[in-house]
Design goal:
single chain; six-stranded antiparallel β-barrel; mainly beta; 736 residues
Length: 736
């Protein structure tokens, strides 16, 4: 400019210089305005491909009781409130305290130099681009909503002061320092004249996609509007700004804002809108439209895009390019007879006021919010285990739906008898998880042996996130989840099978053996003196599957069982095995030979009755024999076994000696189906009886050395008899 002035001064043509200067300034102004008023386009983000993984966590599903909140309706009458002199005075409502503050507009000094703010896509990946209906409904559903800018558009859940519930729309807005924790919406979503004034609560859900809340929600802490709306109910000032309890905009992003003179072509070019209409998709689906604007006035703006109830508060924006999305108007009203819908225009005053309002708020305290990322990403294997022995794998994904990183934390897995998972349930294992960033997820898994403390049974498997309470969260009540599709079956160890105890095979012990058990490492042997007696351990927890019971009384019948366990402490012991009786052989020195009158027949030798306490163990089957003992205690059969001979023509016991064979003859008793006999035989150093089965009679006193005796029993086992078993008196025989 100085060069031009010098040039024209030298030619004394200053008036020409002034003309050129004026022309230059006009040209520059036109250039700036044309740049500002670039033609808008339909936003191509519709159909963008989202790379964000969808969660099926119940925590991110819209609660059933919030799916049918009625769409808010624009006021039927306007400008019918009390008139106020200061229509642009700021009114601030603090939700927590319930207090209202009013600031006169004269205390606000606008800058006026800025006319647009830049959009911000947010920290999340933006995705990849691959109330009246005017004419044909041009609204189209947006899904998924996790691409930009759709995720910056919010659904409002409004609880009025009188308890009435409504839903509306809005848009995240940011401020100059790069923080986004405010929402731009219309005034009648915030201050409801017919329902008590300021809403008592407003919850915002960014990018709601039917029932899915991909970014959880935020709560409103403050509400701002003009007295022109709160007092006078003027549509010129039907707008509001909400302050949120978290910087959710830092992650989902926000569109820029723009203002221009009311005659600027940006208000009549191609514009875009998106919100949650109550007449489409049940009010929980996001719909967009694009069409021309019609006209703008000092305070309002009309356009041909289709709208519906519930879209009050949604943004009207111009798209020039991916980095040039600017909100210019807040939708508020339907067709007023002009054939177009309209809303509150962001004139220079409102544009500047947003900057002042958002800058005045202190940053909220961001927190993490950990949730289970859904049952499809969790599970366990195998589904059937043995407690204390089987190895199990458990896994789940943890998502952070808060606005701060979590830091490290634990995930504890439990087995529960019901679907209420608590720390009092059976702990399976605990996994340590690294920090999770906002709206990101991380795997958790645990692998190990199923604890022996879990009894056999069927259990629900659940997990508690941040079980050590290391993370401060927005919501501490959404950290528990469980697998609903199947249960964990915990089995105990099988009892040992094939248990067998030796029957007189050794003179100094009873050897007990059994089969090994899957998943078991140790075994214990138990003993009792009768089948129903008290079981007492006679071994420790050993690894072998045989045991020599040396603490025995020869001739005494013992009953044996075994248990299996997973360690030397006997943890997770199985049930008892099937029982098996066994005994060590009975030894005695003979006192002489039996004497017979002839080799065919003899009278019963005289004797005396034995006391009942001396009744020896009785052997079923009537078999006797002779044996000798090896040095290791093993019995070697010498003669026998020999069966009783039943001579029906005899009515007494008969003894016939043929070499070393003793034949016992007796007459069968009527109705006696089973016979038992025990004998100490002469001409042998030991007595060995080979039985097919044992009975439960017990020798409680030792037999006097030197006595030769034979005890015979006939037992009535006829099931038709009512008196059951009957013992006959044993008889002792001596030499004459």
């Amino acid at each position: 400019m100085k060069t031009l002035k010098k040039l024209y001064a030298s030619t004394s043509s200053w008036s020409v210089y002034q003309l050129i200067k004026t022309t230059f300034l006009i040209t520059l102004l036109i250039f700036v305005m044309n740049t500002l008023a670039e033609d808008g386009k339909t936003d191509p983000a519709y159909g963008a491909i989202s790379i964000h993984r969808v969660s099926d966590s119940p925590s991110l599903q819209l609660p059933d009781n919030m799916r049918n909140w009625p769409a808010i309706t624009s006021p039927a009458t306007m400008n019918d409130g009390p008139k106020v002199d200061d229509q642009r005075a700021t009114v601030i409502y603090d939700v927590t305290s319930g207090k209202t503050v009013q600031i006169p507009s004269k205390e606000f000094v606008p800058d006026g130099s800025a006319q647009n703010t830049a959009p911000y896509n947010g920290l999340l990946h933006p995705g990849m681009i691959s109330e009246s209906v005017i004419g044909t409904d041009g609204r189209v559903r947006v899904t998924p909503t996790t691409t930009f800018p759709w995720r910056s558009i919010v659904k409002l859940y409004i609880t009025a002061k009188d308890g009435a519930r409504f839903s509306g729309s809005g848009a995240i807005i940011g401020r100059g320092d790069g923080n986004g924790f405010h929402v731009l919406t219309c005034g009648h979503c915030v201050y409801l004249h017919d329902h008590g004034g300021w809403a008592s609560a407003i919850k915002i859900v960014p990018g709601l996609d039917r029932s899915y809340m991909p970014y959880n929600y935020a709560n409103t802490t403050k509400m701002r509007s003009y007295t022109g709306w709160t007092t006078s109910k003027m549509r010129e000032h039907d707008w509001a700004v909400l302050t949120l309890d978290r910087r959710i905009g830092n992650h989902v992003g926000w569109m820029g804002r723009i203002t221009a003179s009311k005659g600027n072509s940006l208000y009549t070019g191609i514009l875009n809108s998106a919100g949650y209409p109550g007449d489409r998709g049940g009010g929980i689906e996001l719909f967009r439209d694009s069409d021309n604007g019609r006209v703008a006035t000092d305070y309002n703006h009309w356009y041909y895009m289709d709208t519906g109830k519930g879209q009050s508060g949604m943004p009207i924006w111009r798209f020039i390019g991916p980095d040039k999305r600017h909100v210019c108007t807040v939708h508020a009203y339907g067709n007023d007879g002009s054939g177009s819908n309209h809303g509150t225009r962001l004139n220079q005053d409102k544009y500047d006021r947003i900057i002042a309002w958002t800058d005045a708020d202190t940053l909220p305290t961001d927190r993490a919010d950990l949730i289970d990322d859904g049952e499809s990403k969790a599970g366990f294997s195998p589904k059937t285990v043995t407690h204390g022995a089987s190895v199990i794998n458990l896994w789940s994904d943890v998502r952070n739906v808060g606005t701060a990183s979590s830091g490290g934390f634990n995930v504890s897995y439990y087995a529960s008898a019901d679907t209420t998972i608590t720390k009092s349930d059976y702990l399976i294992g605990t996994d340590s998880v690294l920090s999770v960033s906002p709206f990101a997820y991380r795997d958790s898994s645990w692998n190990g042996t199923v604890p022996g403390s879990i009894p056999p049974g069927a259990y629900w498997v659940g997990w508690i996130i941040d079980s050590g309470s290391a993370v401060t969260e927005f919501d501490e009540g959404n950290n528990v989840a469980h697998q609903t599709g199947y249960k964990l079956v915990v089995e105990g160890l099988d009892p040992p099978a094939g248990l067998a105890a030796t029957d007189g095979a050794y003179a100094n012990k009873v050897k007990v053996s059994w089969n090994s058990v899957t998943d078991a490492s140790h075994y214990c042997v138990y003993r009792a003196t009768s089948s129903g007696g008290t079981k007492s351990p006679v071994s420790g927890w050993q690894t072998g599957t045989t045991f020599d019971n040396t603490s025995v009384t020869p001739g005494q019948i013992y009953y044996y069982w075994a248990k299996a366990a997973v360690n030397s402490s006997g943890d997770n012991a199985s049930d008892y095995s099937a029982e098996d009786p066994g005994f060590a052989m009975l030894t005695a020195e003979p006192a002489g030979d039996w004497k017979y009158k002839d080799g065919k027949k003899t009278d019963v030798l005289k004797g005396k009755e034995l006391a009942p306490s001396l009744i020896p163990n009785l052997i079923a089957g009537g078999q006797v024999g002779l044996a000798s003992v090896a040095p290791d205690g093993t019995l070697t059969s010498v003669n026998g076994p020999h069966s009783l001979e039943n001579k029906k023509d005899k009515d007494k016991l008969w003894f016939i000696k043929k070499k070393k064979e003793l034949i016992i003859k007796y007459k069968a008793k009527k109705d006696a189906l089973t016979y038992k006999i025990w004998g100490q035989m002469p001409e042998s150093k030991v007595i060995y009886v080979l039985p097919p089965a044992l009975v439960s009679s017990t020798l409680s006193e030792s037999i006097s050395k030197g006595e030769n005796f034979l005890a015979i029993e006939l037992i009535e086992t006829n099931p038709e008899k009512t008196d059951g078993w009957r013992e006959l008196t044993p008889v002792m025989f001596r030499e004459e």
